[in-house]
Amino acid sequence: MQPNRPSPWSRIAIAATLLLATATVSAQMIEKKTLSLAAAKQVVAAAEAEALKNNWNVVIAIVDDGGHVMLLQRLDGTQNGSIEVAQRKARTAMNFRRSTKVFEDAIAGGRNAVLALADLGVFPLEGGLPLMHEGRIVGAIGVSGVTSQQDGIVAKAGADALAAMQ
After folding, report:
1. Which end of the chain has a smaller Cβ tally under 10 Å, C or N?
2. Domain range list for the chain
3. Which residues contact 104 (CB under 8 A, 6 or more apart)?
4. How far is Cα 37 from Cα 26, in angstroms, rounded to an integer?
5. Residue 125 to residue 148: CA distance in whole angstroms
6. Closest by Cα among 76, 82, 71, 80 to 146
7. Which residues are CB-neighbours of 90 under 8 A, at least 6 positions away?
8. In angstroms, how far is CA 58 from the centroid of its own chain?
9. pLDDT, tens only, 22-70
């Protein structure tokens, strides 16, 4: 007695089903760009150059798209408190996908309800910016050490450097 073997048509149907299932799974996946350490170093170098040009002692923090610190640089003479502030600015920019200046401006404009977002990790001082690549956020930069406006200038120099790499 011969074992049950699928007919050629059954084999074709099984193969087609497997191909279709594979195509469906592939269609559900999204290709994601990530911020490399090399790119993060270039962002920090551009931000540092801006700070040094203006004689500003700052901390520069780069976080990945999960808000985890990838790179932290503290220029000589910068106060210790700026380490945490720079990281919080970067995380706020990453988690809320916008400049931290948006939150500072909202509070300055009388939207004190924004203060309630502090429990969610919002740090409402200028100096944090999302880092963009091909229209997607791949990380963020946070800067602290001088006035929030000056921190914003340094952060923008870093973010602009990443944009120029594209």
Report:
1. N
2. 37-164
3. 124, 125, 126, 148
4. 28
5. 6
6. 82
7. 61, 62, 63, 67, 69, 128, 139, 140, 141, 142
8. 20
9. 655 556 788 888 999 999 999 999 999 999 999 999 999 999 999 999 9
- The rounded distance, in Å, linking the Cα atoms of 85 and 124 is 11
What are the b/e assignments for 48-81, b being 16+ CB within 10 Å? bebbeeeebebbbbbbbbebeebbbbbbeebeee
* Residue matched to tokens 């200038």: 153
Token reading at 54: 């203006």
pTM for this model (two decimals): 0.82
Q: Which CATH class is domain 37-164?
A: alpha beta
| Nearest Cα to Cα of residue 64 among 125, 133, 5 | 133
> What φ, ψ does residue 32 adopt, rounded to 5°?
-125, 130
- Read off the amino acid at residue 148: S
Measured distance CA(56)–CA(70) in Å, rounded: 22
Integer-rounded Cα Rg, in Å, for the chain is: 24
pLDDT score of 2 more than 70: no
Name the amino acid, one letter, at 63: V
